[in-house]
Amino acid sequence: MKKLLLFPLFLLLLLSCNLYGLPPLGEDNLTLVPAFTAAAQTIQAMSTSLALTASASPQLVTSTPISSPTATNTLIPTATLPSYPTLVLASPTPSIPCNAAQFIADVTFPDPPGGPILERGAVFTKIWKLKNVGTCTWTPAYALVWVGGERMNAPASVPLPGNVAPGETVNLSVNLQAPARDGDFRSYFMLRSAQGTLFGVGQAANKPFWAAIRVSGPSFLFYDFAANMCAATWKNHSTTLPCPGLEGSADGYVRFDPAPRMENGRTEDEAGLLVAPQQINNGLIQGEFPPIRIQSGDRFRALLFCAYGANNCNVRFRLAYRIGSGSIQTLGEWGEVNEGLYTRLDLDLTSLAGQNVKFILVLLANGSPNGDRAYWLHPQIVRPGTPTPTATQTSTSTPTFTPTPTPTFPPTFTPTPTFTPTGSYTPTPTFTPTFTPTPTFTPTGSYTPTPTDTPPPTNTPSTPAP
Questions:
Q1: 177, 179, 343, 444: which one has the fewest Cβ atoms less than 10 Å from its Cβ?
Q2: Helix (H, G, I), strand (E, B) or coil at 124
Q3: What does the pLDDT read at residue 288?
């Protein structure tokens, strides 16, 4: 009997242990509830039946083992959430400004290199095609205004030729003059509203448009630094050096080379300066030239490279200058190693125009000077235009003129007898006429002919007959 009572209790205990291994109840496990409910009801019925049987009769009852119910996890399909349209935030529509322009085309003088090359000082008319992309009409109270860059003799402002409604295009023009020096130049412009507000092109209508030109013309060699090598004072950090220097000198040296050989072995047909720095760490050599009067448009030109065979060459070239006895200023510095290439210099000296400038050519070692030998090839100042011929003075002697007299007839004379006759005769004098010479030339310059005195005539009387 005890065994029969223990079996249901064991079954309940087993089921309760299995409950801890099952997932918590939820929407996905609601189907398990009926199974658990049925199992519990079966166990309760079995317990009641056994109790009644036991109390009614003490007979031994043979029990048939009852298999425990097996819990089955039945998955419920995942609930599908309702679909909603994707929320897309609309970008705010940019407001169109009152005044805005769009560049359409360069009607004349497009940007280099497509545009023509202008002569120095050439006058030209730049024309742009612009479109009104704002909401306000441009009127003649609007103007094209210069805002920066190379001035090119531009006027401060040019009124618009007429009304330009939104969406319309207009050709705007301005008269300009090319600079008197070579190079590429830009002049920047914008538009100005009737209220004085500047506007231009671009998304924010705040960018300028421009006139871009390239200027070139004839030039001539004004100063040759190589030819005037020894007009400069050459020195290292502490010592003044001889010119020309002794090649291989540990103090550094400079020498004139009529045919320099470049890093790649090519021989040049223009002269250069072979320079080597002082043989100390970071050594240098520099030459300061006499003052040169610089004009607008002057340019410094040269090629820089290491000497052929100077495989360890590692140097810095520097172009400096001094005004009078002032401090040394640097125009530029360029590194060079022996890699088969060269550096070309073409520097505008207009910023120094009107001044007497002492140029200084410098070569510095980058650390060790071992093997440092390099060239300034044809260093020169080039001046725009054509050279002014040098006047050659020619000695001109003063001509000597011999006047040719032209007599005037009949001559007029006054006889002057030189004696008092005696006796009763009448002397017959012989006369030499006196006349005034008339020159047949017109004297040139300040020449005054010197007259030749003509002695008065001498009357020679005839000797009377006895």
A1: 444
A2: strand
A3: 98
